[in-house]
UniProtKB/TrEMBL annotation:
This is Uncharacterized protein. It holds the Pfam family DUF707. It comes from Vitis vinifera (Grape).
Amino acid sequence: MILNLLNIKLAKSWGERREKGVGGGVEGVVDLKLPQLMLYFFRTRSSRWQISVFQNAHSNSIQNTQSSKCKNQCRPSGSEALPEGIVVKTSNLEVQPLWGATLNGEKSSPSKSLLAMAVGIKQKEIVNQIVEKFILSNFVVMLFHYDGVVDEWREFAWSDHAIHVTVVNQTKWWFAKRFLHPDIVAEYNYIFLWDEDLGVENFHPGRYVSIVEDEGLEISQPALDPKKSRVHHQITARVRNSRVHRRTYKHRGSGRCDDQSTAPPCVGWVEMMAPVFSKAAWRCVWHMIQNELIHAWGVDMQLGYCAQGDRTKNVGVVDSEYVVHLALPTLGVLDENELRGEGHDHSSLREKLPKSVALAQSEFHKVDNRSAVRRQSFIEMQIFRSRWANAVKEDKCWIDPYAQPAEDIKQ
């Protein structure tokens, strides 16, 4: 190929000389110095090669930079085949109209918090009182129906605006693990995961949210009215003339609590009947809930690990907005007709019977498995504690921020 190029160069040079009358025939070719042509050729080729190499290097540099930049992007698993701008990482529980801007033709701001409850039709009046307050404070309401009854809630105006999920004989923690994934509720600042047996006469959801935001509480609960509630742990009892408290004091008996206490249930603890989580705390708590441990016993003692910092500061009980814990029997108590899948409404029949007979008949047909439920709850608590201990032992990279000497751990 080099010889062919040289021949072209020689022929061109000879032709130019002939046109200008300079030399001719063989002289025109002889006058050209071959080494100079060779040098010119290689210089030209080398220069072009250098330019090409520079362009390729520059292009590769841009590609490498772009590739490095793209590798550093945090893409949700499974979305790698899509352009980033089309990927929607989260969802919500907002209902959308089939046409138009909104269902009622008016623009409305999205809800900022969520109330989720496990409910049964027997407590519908109590639930109605709770939901009405939350609806007025622009909450999304999600009801988990553990008795399978949904249609009978339609008598309430808010029912069609609530999210209804029904699976028979499951707890709110079973529902929460499956239907409140952090990516689903990521748009809500606070998640209220409540039981159904709570009196809310002295509770206002909007004021409560303002307080926990102002106090920096990532995990909280409303205080319990000690005169009307069944109080299992002193820290949950309302303190008069107080806005919020984060610890309790116990100077007698076992399990004493004082200003030096750093562990639950003296400090950094809420009960599981009415917890309220920030969305950051809920993302952590959701991962801690075990799939098959549906009563979630034992989880309350570890909630402080999800407090997004110091549990002695970020976990608290709100005294100024308080509730009554009625402690009604719900889980494990069923009517025989519920077990057989028959209808629920026998009110007209009972009205014709003497009150004493109707009451006795009602109690006779009830199947009470509460003792079995409680026994299962204790079993699950032991399993959870064992899993926690094993997880701590096996994870060599995890450092316990609340590690205590064995002799200081209160049983």
